[in-house]
Design a protein that fits this description.
- With 235 residues, the chain is mainly beta.
- The chain has two domains: 2-80, Sandwich (Immunoglobulin-like), CATH 2.60.40; 85-223, Jelly Rolls.
- It has two helices and 14 strands.
- It has helices spanning 98-101, 119-123; strands at 2-9, 17-23, 26-33, 45-52, 57-66, 71-80, 85-93, 131-134, 142-148, 154-159, 168-172, 178-181, 188-193, 198-208.
- Strand 10 and strand 11 form a beta hairpin.
- It is globular.
Length: 235
Amino acid sequence: MRIEMNLTAWDPDGDALVSLLMHDGNTWSREHIPAYDPERTAPGGPGYAAFTIVTVGTHVETLSVSDGKVTVNSSVTVRATGSMNLFEVDVKVTESCSLCSGGLPPLHLGTPLGAKGCKGFLMNESPEDCAWSVLSPEWENHQFFANATDDASADLEFRSDCSPTGEAIGLHAHDGAEIGPIPEGAGCVVLWTYYGPATIHFEVQRTTYGTGQESHNALPAEGLNLGSSNNGLGS
């Protein structure tokens, strides 16, 4: 189930605002809305979040805006009755890998090292600062989505395979959620957080990126092989 939330807000006193868009209590988007300018054609500023619910059950989506003194919330309850993903996993990492993303928070000041900055990946250890999984070649150009709990900001790198000597194909290191097409030649994804310990969610959706069409090609369950030398997802 695809969820999109939009928020536009302004303060009568002209104060700057901060908007939060939350899914089941976890922040998915934080936007700073500048002080209201009466000359602007549209008051306030936007907040936006888009994500896919993959867990069957009841979920609460919340929009919140605050000027630092008063907070206004609005919530809606939605029910998901099934998953439409080719692959999905939630894995906990116990520490961040800020150097993988290009330096210490809050600024990406250095050159991102990607998976090469991850101790766990380089040493093929159980997930501490990162996790990884083999990807099916049939998932190329399917839409992926990744996010992390606790505002940790999930980042990731696609690689040709899950070995330290494999080729880096694409790095995604933005604040908040990561979304896009799985690139050609990607046989592995390495996941980490920028800010700290968290649970990372990663999914491969049936939708082919940019087309709106669906494919039902997927690895059989044994293709996951969790905990083997080819995966860093742990148990």
